[in-house]
Specification:
By secondary structure, the protein is mainly beta. It contains 3 helices and 25 strands. A 5-stranded mixed β-barrel has the order 5-6-7-9-8. A 5-stranded mixed barrel has the order 12-13-14-16-15. A hairpin with a 6-residue loop joins strand 12 and strand 13. The model has no long low-confidence stretch (mean pLDDT 93).
């Protein structure tokens, strides 16, 4: 902007000023993009999906992403309500996770009841766009390991994510059960986690399981061992062939609807279960016997 004053024939010196337009922060994604700092921002229809009983843990999400509010007991937020209006807070990045450690609602904020929904994803979809779903309430399904030290692993196909018992609920699971999990994605250092807030958020899914039977051909040539003999469709197990004296392993075949092998010639190999009982056969060949005659 340039300005000058003119009085008759006398003209003043030109005065210049530069103004920078600061775009207001209007979404949680824009807030995260700012990085650590204290900001004023405006949200529209931001839904609170979880508030811990002591008010120290809160999850809120809008159409762009989610946000974790930690250790702010005077936030004034209620689970099952959506909020529109001006707010302020201090954003920090703790071990990779974006969180607000100070938060205040503005005087113009309005709220109304809102059903708490959940975004259902595959693990692969979650991992592919993890920043988008950080602190968003999501549901995933997979095969779970047993919990140890508040952690377990959930696997679906070739994708896995760590489950974390965030509220010390003493969660317990049986390895290889198929479960559905509702939780909040977040980083702890470089580890991608799904944080579980209540015991009801992890549920065993009742699915039909099928039996894998192993056979050797010829029968006297060796044995077949199967790590897990009862599997649901798409679950995997390790199959090992052991040759008896005088024989060597040659190849595998598998029967049934839809089962596949990671390799038909390697042992051990990995079997992915189909939609009915399966039989896996290990083929062995005799080692030629060499006879030496002494004269």
């Amino acid at each position: 902007v340039h300005a000058y004053a003119k009085d008759g024939e006398n003209t003043s010196a030109t005065v210049s000023a530069t103004y920078t337009y600061v775009k207001p922060i209007e979404t949680l994604a824009e807030l995260k993009a700012k990085g650590a700092g204290t900001y004023d921002f405006t949200l529209t229809d931001a839904v609170v999906t979880y508030v811990k009983s002591d008010n120290k843990k809160v999850y809120i999400e809008d159409a762009t992403t989610g946000m974790y509010i930690y250790n702010v007991t005077t936030h004034g937020l209620e689970a099952g309500k959506k909020y529109t209006g001006s707010m302020s807070g201090t954003l920090k990045v703790y071990n990779g996770l974006n969180e607000l450690t100070a938060f205040t609602l503005g005087g113009d904020v309005t709220s109304q009841a809102e059903e708490i929904s959940v975004t259902e994803l595959t693990i692969a979809e979650l991992l592919a766009d993890f920043a988008r779903y950080e602190s968003v309430r999501v549901k995933v399904t997979g095969t779970v390991s047993a919990f140890a030290d508040r952690k377990a692993t959930l696997t679906d196909g070739g994708s896995s994510i760590q489950l974390y018992d965030d509220n010390s609920l003493s969660l317990s699971t049986t390895a290889n059960d198929i479960v559905t999990v509702v939780g909040y994605p977040g980083l702890y250092n470089s580890e991608k986690q799904l944080k579980i807030m209540t015991a009801e958020d992890i549920q065993k899914k009742e699915v039909e399981k099928y039996t894998v039977t192993g056979t050797a051909n010829p029968a006297e040539a060796g044995t077949v061992s199967i790590a897990t003999a009862e599997l649901a469709a798409t679950q995997t197990t390790t199959v090992t062939a052991t040759a008896n004296t005088g024989y060597t392993f040659a190849s595998w075949s598998v029967s049934g609807t839809g089962p596949t092998l990671s390799s038909p010639t390697a042992h051990p190999t990995t079997l992915t279960m189909g939609s009915e009982d399966a039989t896996i056969t290990a083929y062995f060949t005799a080692i030629p016997q060499v006879t030496i005659k002494l004269f």
